[in-house]
C-alpha cells in the first residue's frame, strides 16, 4: 500500500463509482465505454482524481478511482455527467434513439469508499487507542 501526500497531509483515498444510464437503457458497448472513459480521464485531473479501473455493463459503468483530500467529488461527478452526456450523444447518434430526452445519466449515482482495512478492523483500532 503506497500512500500519497501533498504539503499538509498523507492520504490514500479510493472510491468506487457506479453511474447508471437513464431508464437503464442499454447503450454501452466497448467503443462507447472507451470514449466515456477518455472523457472521464480528461476531466479527472482538474479535480485531483486518477482512474484506476473502468468497466461497463450495457446500462451502467463502474469506476475505481483515487482522489485527494481537496477533491470535490460531487462537483466532479456532475461535471463529468454533463460533459459526457453531451459528447456521447453527439458522437454516437444511435444513443439518441434510445434516450429521447436530453438526459443520458440517471440523476442518482452510487459512490462508495474503498480501503485497505475492513471497517471492523479500523473500528477496533480506534476503540483500543490509549489501552495497553
UniProtKB/TrEMBL annotation:
The record's Gene Ontology biological-process terms are: DNA transposition
Its domain of life reads Bacteria
Question: Which GO terms label this protein's molecular function in UniProt?
Answer: DNA binding; transposase activity
Pfam families referenced in this protein's UniProt entry, alphabetically? Y1_Tnp
Query: What SUPFAM superfamilies does the database record attribute to this sequence?
Result: Transposase IS200-like
Q: Which InterPro entries match?
A: Transposase_17, Transposase_17_sf
Q: Where is the Transposase IS200-like domain?
A: 10-129
Q: Which NCBIfam families match?
A: transpos_IS200 (NF033573)
State the protein's name: IS200/IS605 family transposase
Amino acid at each position: 500500500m503506497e500512500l500519497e501526500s501533498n504539503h499538509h497531509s498523507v492520504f490514500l483515498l479510493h472510491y468506487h463509482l457506479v453511474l447508471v444510464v437513464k431508464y437503464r437503457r442499454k447503450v454501452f458497448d466497448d467503443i462507447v465505454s472507451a470514449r466515456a472513459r477518455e472523457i472521464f480521464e480528461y476531466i479527472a485531473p482538474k479535480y485531483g482524481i486518477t482512474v484506476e479501473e473502468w468497466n461497463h455493463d450495457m446500462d451502467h459503468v463502474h469506476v475505481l478511482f483515487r482522489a485527494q483530500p481537496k477533491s470535490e467529488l460531487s462537483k466532479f461527478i456532475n461535471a463529468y455527467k454533463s460533459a459526457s452526456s453531451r459528447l456521447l450523444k453527439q458522437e454516437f447518434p444511435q444513443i439518441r434513439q434510445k434516450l429521447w430526452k436530453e438526459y443520458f445519466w440517471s440523476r442518482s449515482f452510487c459512490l462508495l469508499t474503498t480501503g485497505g482495512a475492513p471497517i471492523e478492523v479500523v473500528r477496533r483500532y480506534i476503540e483500543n487507542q490509549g489501552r495497553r
